[in-house]
Amino acid sequence: MFKQLWATKHPHASHEAADGLGLQRALGPWGLTALGIGAVIGGGIFVITGQAAADHAGPAIMLSFVLAAVCCAFCAMAYAEFAAMVPVSGSAYTYTYATFGELAAWFIGWMLVLEYGVSASAVAVSWTGYFLSLLEHFNIHLPAALVSAPL
């Protein structure tokens, strides 16, 4: 049973199993544009930038952005290398399955699902603050029961 948890699948076997089962193109121009903008910009750039500049980086905020861009470039190159070696859909789950086995891939898959949920809620909370400040400029004040976090 434990051997089966660590069983790996050769990348060529994954590719052969996917033959004829390719992904269908379902996104139109508007969907692709929205997905691209969301992936490139993200929500954190609108939330953390001011706090980081004021509390930590100060005038060196540009250096912080350059350092973050270099780190992101290394991550992008690693994903590009993985995608070239294992050319099937599935991203991090498939790459982990091919290298570390089924148990590690299962763990990575669920961690990605949790990460997407947590990041979406964090961006929603931060954008709520921005939206409330916009409403206050128009003298619109919502009750605290509607706008405060549940915790």
What does this structure look like?
By secondary structure, the protein is an all-alpha fold. The chain has two domains: 59 residues, no CATH class; 63 residues, no CATH class. Helices cover 75% and strands 0% of the residues. α6 runs antiparallel to α7. The protein is elongated and about 60 Å long. It starts with a helix and ends with a helix.
Q: Count of DSSP E strands? A: 0
Strand content: under 5%
Overall radius of gyration: 21 Å
Order of helices and strands: HHHHHHHH
Major pleated sheet: none
Number of domains: 2
Helical residue percent band: over 70%
- Distinct helical segment count: 8
Mean pLDDT figure: 78
Note the gap between the termini.
42 Å
Structural class: mainly alpha
Q: Flag low-confidence runs.
A: none
Described by the principal axes of the CA atoms, the overall outline is elongated
Keywords:
151 residues, mainly alpha, 75% helix, 0% strand, transmembrane helix, AA/rel_permease1, amino acid transmembrane transporter activity, transport
Write a short abstract of this structure.
Helix content is 75%, strand content 0%.
Produce the secondary structure layout:
Blueprint: H1 2-5, H2 11-18, H3 29-41, H4 44-57, H5 61-85, H6 91-99, H7 102-137, H8 144-147
Helix pairs in contact: 6-7
